[in-house]
């Protein structure tokens, strides 16, 4: 290759590889512990107060955004993912009057910034 073209080739290569590398790095490969990048890990103890708090936050936030009256009942199941903070993906039991319904909520939390956001809230089969 001529030097000029070679340079261009490497430039393109960098453009292609950098975003992949960046998204991988953000995906949770921290401390070099060999954790699966971007993987969801089951929450070992879903009865922990903090997990319940995330679940309650999700229902509250959903009620605000959709003017609903769902009542949080419990966290049925949950997973977390490390992404510049932590994503919680929880299966929540809720009640709307007598109607019981399960939802899958994703909450993004950055504890040190006191930041939380409800990313999604979708019905699932009970
Ligand atoms: C789960 O968390 C609850 C509340 O913190 C605690 O009482 C319980 O002992 C924990 N269970 C296990 C198996 O760690
Ligand atoms: C929070 O999530 C909603 C979508 O559920 C999004 O519209 C909003 O921009 C997010 N807020 C922040 C601060 O990331």
From TrEMBL:
Residues 1-27 form the signal peptide. GO terms for molecular function: cysteine-type endopeptidase inhibitor activity. Residues 35-124 form the Cystatin domain. SMART domains: CY. Pfam families: SQAPI. This is Cystatin domain-containing protein. Gene3D superfamilies: 3.10.450.10. It comes from Quercus lobata (Valley oak).
């Amino acid at each position: 290759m001529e030097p000029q073209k070679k340079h261009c080739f490497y430039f393109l290569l960098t453009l292609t590889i950098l975003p992949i590398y960046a998204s991988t790095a953000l995906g949770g490969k921290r401390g070099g512990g060999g954790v699966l990048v971007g993987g969801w890990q089951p929450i070992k103890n879903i009865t922990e107060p903090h997990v319940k708090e995330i679940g309650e936050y999700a229902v509250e936030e959903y009620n605000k955004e959709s003017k609903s009256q769902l009542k949080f009942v419990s966290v049925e199941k949950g997973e977390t993912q490390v992404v510049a903070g932590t994503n919680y993906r929880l299966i929540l039991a809720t009640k709307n009057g007598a109607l019981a319904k399960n939802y899958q909520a994703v909450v993004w939390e950055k504890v040190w910034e006191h930041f939380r956001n409800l990313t999604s809230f979708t019905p699932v089969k009970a």
